[in-house]
Amino acid sequence: MAIKLVHEIRELASLTAERYEPLANPVRIIILYIISALGEARWSDVKLLLENILGRVNPNTLSFHLKKLIEAGLIVKTGAPEDPRYMAEMDKLPSFIKSDLEEGTKKVGLLLREVRKSHDQIA
Questions:
Q1: 48 to 42, 88, 113: CA distances (angstroms)
Q2: Rg of the chain, C-alpha, whole Å
Q3: How far is 104 from 35, CA to CA, in rounded Å?
Q4: Cα–Cα distance between 35 and 13 in angstroms, integer?
Q5: What is the predicted pLDDT for the residue at 122?
Q6: Measured distance CA(25)–CA(32) in Å, rounded
Q7: How far is residue 67 from each of residues 7, 16, 22, 77, 113, measured CA to CA in Å?
Q8: Which 3 state secondary structure label does DSSP give 73?
Q9: 24-122 has which CATH code?
């Protein structure tokens, strides 16, 4: 009985770790904040805001993280292949992260206003 329980516990732990692995990277969390703040985001919008937060971001790195979030079902990709749009699948997020996501989304919204102001001042 104990051996069976140990096996079940290990299996459950592995499944849980696998299920939440896409959320284990801070870059992916920030991407979720950005997409949630924008509602629907173009790749270039995500890159611009991500670089305002993290500094220079390799395009391949952004594509890699977007792909991981899509594979996990946490965001969806819509639109034409040459101009894709990304949207967060809020109902698929675990409840424990939703309050953190809301807070991060609000902060990205504030940053977005600042970025837009600076671009308006330049233009």
A1: 10, 18, 13
A2: 17
A3: 11
A4: 29
A5: 46
A6: 11
A7: 32, 20, 10, 9, 27
A8: coil
A9: 1.10.10.10
For residue 75 the two structure tokens come to 């965001």
Q: Which residue has the tokens 């807070």?
A: 103
Cα dihedral: 91, 88, 58, 106 (round 10): -100
Strands (E), 1-123: 41-42, 75-78, 85-88
pTM for this structure? 0.81
Q: What are the residue ranges spanned by the domains of the chain?
A: 24-122
Contact 77, 89 (CB under 8 A): no
Q: What is the pLDDT of residues 69-101, one digit of tens each?
A: 999 999 999 998 888 999 998 887 777 777 777
Q: Is 32 exposed, middle or buried (0-12, 13-18, 19+ CB in 10 A)?
A: buried
